[in-house]
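Feature request, filed as a ticket because there's no other form

It would be nice if the structure record came with a short human-readable summary line next to the tokens. Right now we just get the raw output. Example of a typical job, pasted below so the devs can see what we mean:
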Amino acid sequence: MSEVKLTVSGISKRFGDLEVLRSISTEINRGEFISIVGPSGCGKTTFLRIIGGLDTAASGEVRLDGRRIEGPGTDRGFVFQQDNLLPWRDILSNTEIGPEIGGKRSPEQRSRTMQLLKLVGLGGFEHYFPRQLSGGMRQRVNLARALAVDPDLLLMDEPFSALDAQTREIMQTELLRIWEEGRKTVLFVTHQIDEAVYLSDRVFVFGRRPGRISEIIDIDLPRPRPLSIKRTPKFVEYVDHIWKLIEEDVRASVLEEHTG
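Raw output as currently delivered:
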């Protein structure tokens, strides 16, 4: 029987007169990889920020291991779209920011950070600076930095959106490799349906604003997953199904952006 890691109960959110999220409830099990897809403006990032404790809900609650989330904490790691690395710090010291803020710097922590950089493929780059790295390498640092606090839950907000298509695919395979090593519970926001299907155990499909879960898709594909799985009929079937669920909302969202 799976162990429930995260419980979301009746989460709603407004920004003034704008209703962003409406009565979202769900449970996520320990070690699950969950992706969230939906049209622009449906509240995906707001939902992630509430779970991360970076924003507050108007109603409802979120519990991690039974504890109510009321603010940021080291039990959650956040990987944003932009890496936000500090340009004056080398890769090692950028990765150590979380433990440093938490007062947990030690020889043991330094050793673990070095291992994390090897895990994300950056062994030997510890003393390089952000300006010396490619976009994909910077996002690897971003991921290592989030993992350095050893979070129970990893929250990822379109972390590969700024990368070119080829680098993005490689980063997807690398993320799965890293996830397989530690099996962190992951919530991953993306606009790319194929990315969601490739990475996930389940895909949460959000409807157009106010955001709500319109359907949850179980992804029954074997792991580990090579990139070639994207060309299989079953994979394409999942992508087509999800696209049909959100196509009308996406069209309406695009039209609203261009006429609003």
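Something like this underneath would help us a lot:
Residues 1-72+192-247 form a domain with the Rossmann fold fold (CATH 3.40.50.300).
The mean pLDDT is 90.
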